[in-house]
Amino acid sequence: MNKIVDIIMREPNVEEILEEVRSALQQEEKDRKAFRAWLTPDRKAEFISGEVVMHSPAKERHLLATTTLSKVFGFHVTHYELGVMRVEKAMVSLGRNDFEPDLCVWLKEDSDKFDKEMMSYPAPALVIEVLSPSTKKRDRGIKKDTYEVFGVREYWIVDPDKETVEQFINVLHPEGARFEPVVLHGTNDNIYCAAFSKLSFPVSIIFDEAKCHQFVLEMMKE
After folding, report:
1. Listed residue (206, 157, 151, 146) closest to 181, CA to CA
2. Distance (Å, whole) CA 190 – CA 201
């Protein structure tokens, strides 16, 4: 039995506890609907564990990493017709949470089902979050845990200050799927994308727009 369920079942007032949980979830669902109605294209916000989380404008180093990664994945995914990539404003709805990751990629088997009016997306094959002081706790905590449970195949945490990438691959174990970290990648390393086996590139291009531009030009020649 699940450990949490086991703990609850030991309580003498288990029915009251479950009723409180049901009531809290019903209220949270109302709040979530209100959140989605409140959203506009100009508002950068997420709904996480029942709370609305607003995001301030990003710093240059954060925007640089997002821009370079979008150029590399945007070209690769489009060129090989692998699926679709979206940056920042795609709302990924997983369980109780509505996230807007910095970069997502869905494989063609999923993206072929998308329609032009959709505003809520399923679990991507790849999610990339670029750390900032205000988001790093969530990126390493609730977001990582949620991506893992809901079957995101690969998760990258990019640190623009340290210029590193932590890469997590979802691996099936007897007790269920679990992220396993690959080595921490620095600017002298190459990173290999597990979700897209043909794609590998130097980590350094994430933090250097000129190097990224040259890399994409080389990709176009292949």
Report:
1. 157
2. 5
DSSP alpha helix (H) spans, the chain: 3-9, 14-38, 60-79, 108-111, 136-140, 142-149, 209-221
β-pair type (83-87, 92-94): unpaired
Count of Cβ atoms closer than 10 Å to residue 116 Cβ: 4
- 11-49 pLDDT, tens digit per residue, is 888 888 888 888 999 999 999 999 999 988 888 899 998
CA pair distance 170, 154, nearest whole angstrom: 6
| Whole-number Cα distances in Å, 155 to 100, 138, 149 | 14, 14, 12
Question: Longest Cα pair distance anywhere in the chain, in angstroms?
Answer: 68
Secondary structure class of 91 (helix, strand, coil): coil
Tell me which architecture the domain covering 58-221 has in CATH: Alpha-Beta Complex (3.90)
Instruction: State the Cα–Cα distance between residues 185 and 165, nearest whole angstrom.
Output: 5
Contact 156, 127 (CB under 8 A): yes
Both tokens assigned to 216? 């994409």
What are the extents of the domains in the chain? 58-221
| pLDDT tens digit sequence for 130-177 | 999 889 999 999 999 999 999 999 999 999 999 999 999 999 777 777
